[in-house]
From TrEMBL, chain A:
Record-linked PANTHER family: RESPONSE REGULATORY DOMAIN-CONTAINING PROTEIN (PTHR44591:SF3), STRESS RESPONSE REGULATOR PROTEIN 1 (PTHR44591)
Name of this chain's protein: Response regulator
SMART domains in the record: REC (SM00448)
Pfam family, one: Response_reg
SUPFAM superfamilies hit by this protein: CheY-like
Domain named Response regulatory: residues: 4-116
From TrEMBL, chain B:
InterPro entries: Rossmann-like_a/b/a_fold, Universal_stress_UspA, UspA
Pfam families for this protein: Usp
Organism per entry: Pseudodesulfovibrio methanolicus
High-level lineage: Bacteria, Pseudomonadati, Thermodesulfobacteriota, Desulfovibrionia, Desulfovibrionales
Residues in coiled coil: none
Family label: Belongs to the universal stress protein A family.
Domain of life, per lineage: Bacteria
SUPFAM superfamilies attached to this UniProt entry: Adenine nucleotide alpha hydrolases-like
Protein name according to UniProt: Universal stress protein
UspA domain ranges (all copies): 1-148, 158-291
CDD domains: USP-like
Amino acid sequence: MSKKILIVDDDQEIRSYLSELLGDNGYETVTANDGAEAVDIAKSEKPDLITLDLEMPNEWGPRFYRKISQDDALKRTPVVVISGLNAIQYAIPKAIASLTKPFEPTQLLKIVKDAIG
Amino acid sequence: MFKKILLATSGAPSTFGAARVAFDMAKRYGAEVVVFNVMGVPTKAFSQVVNDVRTGEEIEVDDEYRAWVEEELKSTFEKQIESVEYAKIVTTTGVPSREILRAARAEDADLIVMGASSGDSSAYRKGYPGSTLQRVAKAARCPVMTVHRETASYWGGFGNIVFATDFSKQAENAFKFALNSAKELGCDLTLFHALDISGKVLDQNDIEDKLIAARARIRETYGPLMGDFKDFDIEVWEGVPYVEIVKIARERSADLIVLAHHSRELDPELASIGSTLEQVILRAGCPVVSVSKPDKV
């Protein structure tokens, strides 16, 4: 059974690109365009990994992370931060990795493979 | 509560975090942002020649220079200004701290938002907040929010406030601000006290007795003031206060820390910024509000 990844980003192009990249490499993907929507999707879809943007229209990445950290079923889900902002490694210190846009696809794939196979 | 926000900015990248928070608050809570910039410090009293705050160069302030500075600020914050309903740019010359305080009074600002220092040197970033923040935090009638590390501005709105208390008289005003913010913005509130054991080797029973006493003191001091507000926790543990405040905020994913401006000196006109607050401002992963006066809490 393929592993499921939740892609959280307000940029449609990034969502499509990541869906394609991860889909082509054998992962199932679901997407959310905002942190608020992403909480519901994470609860219903139970992803194996989450890629997370930081600055979004309503609910920003760190607050989404706080919400899933309080959910017993989701709190151990690995999170990869993908954002264009500076100093993002400090935004969610417990994320397994932080990638600054534009990022190397091979680097993301390696992070994902190391985390969930 | 947050109807008018004074964003004090030199336009330098070190203030971008403060700008992100100020504009996001304005968008979320329907506030007006006054983008306030002190262009330069007059070289002599009433002189038209000033030292530019960014470059240090001597500049003659005329209409052309004013227009150029305004245009620079407009283009720097263009997207953010467009994203809010009410924003205006105000520029002036003078000593920055005095002009910021003057503008906050004139605009009747509910909150001043600023960076901790314009310097990007490691000495500044590690050591202490700049003199402008120190003077503004001390004398402002309204709470002062500082956003120092850029990562402190990546929250988007407030949902989880940490109020750190040392049980000083000054902490009462900070508590009122924290509670009112939590009520108005629908936040969780953590009342936190760090038992200072730096440089001491205490018996463990002694430490735990003090922790129990501190928890009881928080309940007695702040419990009766809560009214019908229920979304609060009490947390007390031992350590070095500034380290523990930064740590609890990080562990709880707090998006706002509220502290009193000082504790030891009772006269607010004399007290300088407390060393704990100073270190929390420089290290926190979220905005920090310091409260000195009771006027706007």
